[in-house]
Design goal:
Layout lengths: L2 H18 L8 E5 L5 H9 L4 E4 L2 H14 L5 E4 L8 H7 L2 E5 L2 H10 L7 E6 L16 H8 L5 E7 L8 H18 L5 E3 L6 H6 L4 E4 L1 H4 L4
Helix pairs in contact: 2-3, 6-7
Length: about 230
């Protein structure tokens, strides 16, 4: 299958899942994860109508985003979706429109400092730790609201919602249910922070059923790197 065919197939599956969940397609954003692929792939996707791209490593994303913007005048957005080291924050905020992996206080401090004078606030999602292991990345659901209150003290950050990764070896419904419950809790603090970044190539249809608004889909669209 070609890139266009894979993209169309995923878009059709998203539409079917949205209909099954009585949701409007307008409430679901498809982010194509372009990691491990050259900038040309993003340029090809732009020509196919895609406008949102996800990356998880600054050392790859920074030059790639610069190359794409130098070669195309089409407006598009970069979403940083991987674990972000504090020493990479200054670089990431120079090209990213959103960070989906705000997972700890030290990163919040660095992002708050780097965006203090930003003309347009940086969209952020709080990454959830859905395991019982406190050593794993992410905020435990029980600590979500106190952490979110800290996020809201930074004027350069726009809290959009929560992000979660469901474990493929566990019951998907359990993890997506926990993500949805965390989203509902967050809305009691900030009603506008109603977005859910969840769902990848293997589980996005289930994620849609649990209210995911931002799907992060890579290989099902991009294929394997040649």
């Amino acid at each position: 299958m070609s890139l266009a065919e894979r993209l169309a197939a995923i878009q059709q599956r998203i539409a079917v899942a949205a209909t099954a969940s009585n949701r409007s397609l307008e409430t679901i954003k498809l982010i194509v994860v372009t990691k491990n692929h050259p900038a040309q792939l993003a340029l090809d996707l732009l020509s196919l109508g895609m406008r949102d791209f996800g990356e998880n490593r600054d050392q790859e994303a920074a030059p790639k985003s610069e190359e794409v913007r130098s070669k195309s005048s089409i407006e598009h957005r970069w979403h940083f979706i991987g674990q972000l080291q504090s020493n990479k924050v200054k670089s990431v905020v120079s090209y990213a429109d959103s960070v989906h992996s705000l997972d700890r206080q030290s990163l919040l401090d660095a992002l708050g400092k780097a965006t203090a004078d930003r003309a347009k606030p940086l969209d952020v999602f709080i990454q959830l730790n859905l395991t019982d292991d406190p050593g794993r990345g992410g905020i435990q659901p029980g600590s979500l609201l106190p952490f979110a209150e800290n996020v809201l003290t930074h004027p350069g950050l726009n809290l959009r919602g929560v992000m979660g990764v469901a474990a493929l070896d566990q019951e998907l419904d359990r993890d997506f249910s926990d993500i949805r419950a965390a989203s509902e809790a967050l809305k009691t603090l900030r009603p506008e922070a109603d977005q859910i970044s969840a769902g990848m190539s293997e589980d996005f249809e289930t994620a849609i059923g649990y209210g995911a608004t931002h799907l992060r889909i890579g290989s099902a669209i991009t294929g394997k790197r040649q």
